[in-house]
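[audit] Reproducing an earlier prediction to check determinism. Same input, same settings, fresh worker. If the tokens differ from the archived copy the diff job will pick it up downstream; this log only records the rerun itself.
[audit] input (232 residues):
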Amino acid sequence: MVLVLFVRHEIEKGLTMEKEFWMQAWEDRRIGFHQSQYNPVMTEHYKDLELKDKNVLIPLAGKSKDILYFIERGANVTAIELSEMAVKEFFEENGIVPQLSKTATHTIYESQGLKFVCGDFFSYSPDQGKHFDYYYDRACIVALPMEMRQSYYKKIESLIAIHTDIFIITFAHNGPKDFGPPFYVPEEEILTAYKNIGFDLNFTVFNESKAEGRFKEAGIDKMKRLHWKKQI
């Protein structure tokens, strides 16, 4: 029992530290991960899929432009983001005026086709009876250190169903596995985690580039971008 309480405490401490890290990253404008255009790998994956009236889950969404892609295709998007600054900037930068409401744990920003949930992803629960047809992980897993990822996989398991289409973007490099974010998440970890949920995934290497900035300073030479999807 003591061990269980200790593990739970360490997980909760890790979650708190991670929240503080990302909140401060937005405050300090350390948001080099934000892209001003649609992710081309994302659009390639979804271009031939039927999105109209489908429910799409985008966790740890930041202020991603990718959200607009799904809305423009007629989907109903649920985006979840911890930073209120990121959520507000999304609506301001895209000229959208949302309706606001609150739950006990989250602030909800809503506009046509979009429910933007501001608050802790790990305490989010979908509307009763709602299921997600698509789950888009736009580099969510790689934002989390190893000690938090098992909690992330369990949360995802509670939100998706066996029919859900899965698309995930991760990174690989030849440096320390604990350096990040973005962290290098071993391929075997992802394969095992989603197999335990009930999904067989496969991946391809999207591109390889020279490491720059703090990654280069850490002794990392190359970065690979991997994209994952459910096997048909």
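[audit] rerun output stored. Observation attached for the diff report: The two ends are 42 Å apart (CA to CA).
[audit] end
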